[in-house]
Amino acid sequence: MRFRTKLYTSIGSLLLFITIIVVILMNMLEQSTVKMNVVINDLNERIEIASTIKEETSTITKELHTMLKERGEAIPSDSLNEWENSNSNLQMAMASLEKKDTQEKSQELISKLKLLHESYRNMGQQALSERKINPNIELTAPFWTESELLRQRMIQMTELLYGLQEQGMKNELLRSKDTYNWAVENIYIYLVIGLILGIGFAIWIIKSTSNNLNKVTDVMKQATASDFDSLPRIEITTKGELSEIAVAFNKMANALEKHSRNDKQLKEEAEELSWLNTKIAEIATLYPEVENVEMLASMLITKLAPMVRASHGIFYLKEIEKGNQYLTRISSFASNAFEQERKQFRLGEGLIGQCALSKRPIHLNQVPDDYLKIGSGLGEASPKAIMILPVLFEDQVLAVIEMASFEKLTPLQIKLLDEVNNNLGIKINSIINHMKVEKLLQESQALTEELQAQSEELQMQQEELRSTNEKLEEQYEASKQRNFEIQEVSAALEEKAQQLELSSRYKSEFLANMSHELRTPLNSLLILAQILSENGEGNLTLKQLEYLKTIYTSGNDLLNLINDILDLAKVESGKLDVISEEVKLNEVSDFIYHQFAPIANQQKVHFTIERESELSTTFFTDEQRLQQILKNLLSNAFKFTESGSVTLQIRQIMKNVGEKHPAEQMLAFSVIDTGIGIENEKQETIFDAFRQADGTTSRQYGGTGLGLSICREMAHLLGGFIEVSSEIGKGSTFTLYLPYGQMNNKIEPLSMARTEAAVSLEENYLVNTNVPVLRDEPKIKQGKSILRNKKVLIVDDDIRNVYALTIALENHEMDILVAENGREALEVLNVHPETDLILMDIMMPEMDGFEAIQHIRKIRIFETIPIIALTAKAMKHSREECLEAGASDYISKPINLEQLFSLMQVWLFTKEG
After folding, report:
1. What is the DSSP string of 581-622?
2. How far apart, in whole angstroms, are the C-alpha atoms of residue 274 and residue 278?
3. Helices and strands counted in the chain (H then E)
4. Residue 555, CB half-sphere, CA atoms under 13 Å: how many?
5. Which of 19, 205, 216, 453 is 20 to 30 A (C-alpha) from 233?
6. Using one digit for the tens of pLDDT, what is the confidence trace for 475-524?
7. Any idea what the Cα angle at residue 861 is, between residues 857 and 865, rounded to 5°?
8. Rounded CA gap, 769 and 645, in Å?
């Protein structure tokens, strides 16, 4: 800004400032007057409202007193309306005053007055209501006393409100007067301040102008004495002639400084380029002396590390081992002999592997203190910077260089590493190719010598081949004849295999049908024998009961024989399921003891179970198969021991399983008896099926000779074996060896027919375990009563079974219906829909049990009737087929009457809810 402009501006600003102050002060005075008028008007309104409240309060008390004093006459309507209007006016006045007067004391008085008015009004309305009902009623003295007290308090409150509003008016007038005087005083004060500011502003303009001239003079003097790298600047913030001079001088200083910096930068770049070319040339002089990659890595890392002031360096070369790429350390600089450095990295592993994988340098400037230690004789310290560079050739990584420094790498050092790295890939590739060529040359020379030797051998072999060809022609003719004979033998073997498979199927079907045919008559035999043995009518002699017991025992023996034959067929068919689970030795010992302790007491033979104290409490095997083997071995021991003792020992030993297998820990179950013993030549044959130590017709001990054969095969399935040691007259020891931790074994089925025929009665005629059993005595008595007068339909084509079941059920006072097949069963049910339970045979003519059950379930009234399936054909999937067809439960023949009755009681109990 120019001098003239500054002067005009300062004088104008002073006048404008004084004018603005005068206008503002006059406006303030006018606003104060207006505000004072508004406040006074508001106070007048509040005084008038307080006066109204006072008048209306007097009117209310007056009118109420007048209406209540006149007895025996009706209340005048004019007085009553006047009283109501006064109450309404009083309420509106109090509400209006409450809005206008916000003083805390006024609000408190209005609130109290409202409460007093409400109480007085309620009291008056109550008195008026009583007077309307009974004009002659006389109000009590307490009423007049209380009403007078309320009236006086209301009048007192109105007086206080009125006095409070008048006092507010007086106070406001005093404040308005004080405000007016304050405004006049401020006008004079602001005028004085404006005059002082105007004079100061003029003085400031003059002083600032002289200061700027002094600044320009000082800067020009300093510029003559300074160099061109940093020239002083004129700092003037105001505009005008001096600011234009300052801008021109500053531009000149900037141009001179820029020219000086460019000169220095060019000089530094020339020096850096010279240093860079010198170092690259020093590295290049190493290449002619290099013979292999290891030598190149050692010389390069030793030369390059000091050039970039690195204190530690490592050279990694990419190698391929078994199809995998690795970066292997082949050379280092200032390596610490005691540090555990990695020798190899996979691609992508660590920073080295990641650098090779991404093919980009990795530069770290903030290295943790415990990352790496670089030491000397005086001490050790951590580096501050790490640089990892990939060595590339045609976009393929050949090596990786890692440098560590106590100082941050400068751009020039990084540029040197990049330049060296660019040429290094070419050199490494050249050395590798050269080494490959040398290797190929050596191999070529070796192959040439080998070929010469082979050529001589080939000449000798050609002579041998001529004679061999003649022999081969003779052998070719002979082989034709042999092939023809082999084809004939293969055809014969295939035919024999088909015949064997057919024979095996016939055998399986025979065993299944034999099971059915044997169990059917055996079922009626056992049922009738059991019924007779109960001697319900008490007309049988003890001798007859003994005969019946013999018949029942013989039937069970026959049943056990059938089971043994089916078990053996099951083992031979290769379909014996083994389910390994955690077995507790304590439970096995208790089971065996409870099974055979009564037999030992009966035969007066000492029976003990011994177990090692340090033996583990559990192991893994099939508990059912283990119990079956031990029961069979112990049964034989008791059978052949008339006196003495039978002992079961359980211990852990190391046992050789085979010649090619090392010894392993096994669990040994030894059954030791003091019986008759076995001859040495018969100790192997006793494990064959149907073979016994004494197999003559005059033998002393009975049996089929199947037990040990079944035990041996089951032991093999459990992963173990059985050994026997015996001496005639002293006793025998049968030892079952089982491994620990055995997993589930399951032999695949050979054929469906053989599998079905090989199913034995593993369930021991148990019914479906999912049905609850009646255990306590009250429920058992209740179950027996459930059978009485119930109607049961027996569906069976064998009259013997029907006869036996009818007798057994009639003993329980049950009504019996009979059908010979499924079709007749449907007809009987249509005639007798009140039937309570059905016993359904499975194998029947015309319509079998499965089809009959399905038809019955389709009839709505028989959807929930209990149907118990009966079958004598021991098929593995019989139970599942029966339940899927719609049967409620399943039981196999021969039928155990106790189990049948229990099952019927459960289902009838369930049906009745």
Report:
1. EEEEHHHHHHHHHHHHHHHHHHHT-EEEEEE-TTS-SEEEE-
2. 6
3. 19, 20
4. 23
5. 205
6. 888 888 888 888 888 888 888 877 776 766 666 666 666 666 666 677 66
7. 60
8. 38
Cβ neighbours of residue 898 closer than 8 Å, sequence gap 6 or more = none
Which residues share a beta bridge with 649? 610, 670
pLDDT of 238 over the 80 cut: no
DSSP state of 746: -
* pLDDT tens track for 324-344: 888 898 888 887 754 556 688
CA atoms within 13 A on the CB side of 641: 29
Yes or no: say if 413 and 272 are a contact pair by the CB < 8 Å rule: no
Q: Are 490 and 498 in contact (CB under 8 A)?
A: no
- The residue type found at 809 is L
Give residues with Cβ within 8 angstroms of 165, minimum separation 6. Answer: 43, 46, 47, 50, 101
670 Cβ partners below 8 Å, 6+ apart? Answer: 647, 648, 649, 650, 651, 733, 734, 735, 736
What Å distances lie between residue 307 and 282, 287, 405, 421, CA to CA?
A: 10, 17, 11, 14
CA distances from 866 to 432, 664, 816, 856 (A): 89, 54, 15, 11
Backbone φ and ψ of 773, nearest 5°:
-105, 140
Answer for the pair 891, 869: CB distance below 8 angstroms, yes or no: yes
Measure the CA–CA gap between 630 and 669, rounded to whole angstroms.
8
| Whether the Cβ atoms of residue 245 and residue 220 lie closer than 8 Å to each other | no
Residues 6+ apart with CB under 8 A from 315: 297, 298, 300, 301, 329, 330, 331, 332, 399, 400, 401
pLDDT (tens digit, 9 = 90+) per residue, 530-551?
777 777 777 778 777 777 777 7
Residue 642 identity = E
Element (H, E) at 724: strand 721-727
Q: Sign of the C-alpha dihedral, residues 48, 49, 54, 60? A: positive
Extract the tokens encoding 490: 């293969």
Query: Whats the size of the chain, residue-wise?
Result: 913
H/E stretch holding 106:
helix 104-133
CB-count burial class (<10 Å; 0-12, 13-18, 19+) for 346: middle
How far is residue 418's CA from residue 430's CA, in Å, rounded to a whole number? 19
Question: Distance between CA 768 and CA 783 in Å, rounded?
Answer: 18
309: left (phi over 0), alpha (psi -120 to 50) or beta: left
CA distance 295 to 274: 28
Q: What would the two tokens of residue 340 be?
A: 């555990």
In terms of pTM, does the model score above 0.85? no
Distances (CA, A) of 526 to 567, 692, 805, 896, 903: 22, 29, 11, 8, 18
Strand order of the β-sheet with 867-871 is 815-819, 791-795, 837-841, 867-871, 889-892
794: region left, alpha or beta (phi > 0 left; psi from -120 to 50 alpha):
beta
C-alpha span between 209 and 202 (Å, rounded): 11
894 preceded by a cis bond (ω within 30 of 0): yes
DSSP state of 743: P
Residues 6+ away with beta carbon under 8 Å from 237: 243
3-state SS, one letter per residue, for 856-876: HHHCHHHCCCCEEEEECCCCC
- 559: Cβ contacts below 8 Å, ≥ 6 apart: 519, 522, 526, 894
